[in-house]
Automatic annotation (TrEMBL):
<protein>
    <submittedName>
        <fullName>Short-subunit dehydrogenase</fullName>
    </submittedName>
</protein>
<dbReference type="GO" id="GO:0016020">
    <property type="term" value="C:membrane"/>
</dbReference>
<keyword id="KW-0560">Oxidoreductase</keyword>
<dbReference type="InterPro" id="IPR002347">
    <property type="entry name" value="SDR_fam"/>
</dbReference>
<dbReference type="GO" id="GO:0016491">
    <property type="term" value="F:oxidoreductase activity"/>
</dbReference>
<dbReference type="Pfam" id="PF00106">
    <property type="entry name" value="adh_short"/>
</dbReference>
<dbReference type="InterPro" id="IPR020904">
    <property type="entry name" value="Sc_DH/Rdtase_CS"/>
</dbReference>
<dbReference type="InterPro" id="IPR036291">
    <property type="entry name" value="NAD(P)-bd_dom_sf"/>
</dbReference>
<comment type="similarity">
    <text>Belongs to the short-chain dehydrogenases/reductases (SDR) family.</text>
</comment>
Length: 266
């Protein structure tokens, strides 16, 4: 069997304690992959215990992937396993609401460090190993938010614009290497993201959202099929298409109506 066939590989999933990351880990476990799951909270151990029900090996790592030290902790655990990574699902992400000047700067910086710095550092580490052996699959969790200026989520949307762009560029660079790069770009999804980002009183925070399990399956299948990018859900596909032909100033205004604090109570 090839290294990435079910039952023979190792999958690493970041941000896997809840939400899309946890559901991505379930997809890999169902396919027979052993797992290393990572998050910056104790709940990652509980998630790992649940994932073991699929009959594969599951190793939980609690690490803050917004720091280089946290990423190093993860890569050291991977090295200690003595195995190569066949699937890397770089899903760890953080959001923050309110107007940029009203945000705590350290919290805003942590969004950048989690969504961008830690993500590309991890991919640089694992991607080089994959390229050296000529095999591997990488899935990044971007967002349709990356297609529009995110008024009242300015930092978050900008980080997702980076991830979307980065994934397309990296895919092109690695197209002859045997390593595939895919980008999952979901819309609003039913996870704890909105609570953690302080967005529960907004229109988007109170809106009907996509199912995390379904979103994860779409992204996982795209990665396994070697697709470059996938927008989950027809409404999100339409929104992404409209964003491509709408002036940025209009998009910023529209975003403010759903993300401005208190917009969910009007």
């Amino acid at each position: 069997m090839a290294p990435d066939e079910p039952g023979k590989g190792l999958a690493v999933v970041t941000g896997a304690s809840t939400g899309i990351g946890y559901e991505l880990a379930k997809c890999a476990a169902r396919d027979g992959y052993d797992l290393i799951v990572v998050a910056d909270e104790e709940r990652i151990s509980h998630a790992a215990a649940d994932l073991k029900a699929f009959g594969t090996s599951v190793d939980a790592v609690e690490a803050d992937l917004s720091t280089l030290e946290g990423v190093d902790r993860l890569t050291e655990r991977i090295t200690a396993s003595g195995r190569s990574v066949d699937l890397l699902m770089a899903n760890a992400g953080r959001g923050i609401g309110e107007g940029f000047l009203d945000q705590n700067f350290n919290e805003a910086r942590k969004v950048v460090d989690t969504n961008i710095t830690g993500t590309i550092y991890l991919i640089h580490q694992i991607g080089n190993q994959m390229r050296s052996r000529g095999a591997g699959r990488i899935l990044l969790t971007g967002s349709i938010a990356g297609f529009m200026p995110g008024s009242y989520q300015a930092v978050y949307n900008a980080t997702k614009a980076f991830i979307n762009s980065f994934s397309f560029a990296l895919r092109e660079e690695l197209k002859e290497s045997g390593v595939t790069v895919s980008c999952l770009m979901p819309g609003a999804t039913e996870t704890e993201f909105f609570k953690r980002a302080g967005l529960l009183d907004t229109a988007i925070g109170q809106s009907k959202k996509d199912d995390a399990g379904e979103v994860a399956r779409i992204g996982y299948d795209a990665m396994m099929d070697g697709e470059g990018d996938v927008v989950s859900g027809w409404k999100n596909k339409l929104q992404a298409a409209v964003a491509n032909v709408t002036p940025a100033s209009v998009l910023a205004y529209q975003h403010s109506k759903v993300a401005k604090p208190g917009s969910g109570t009007k």
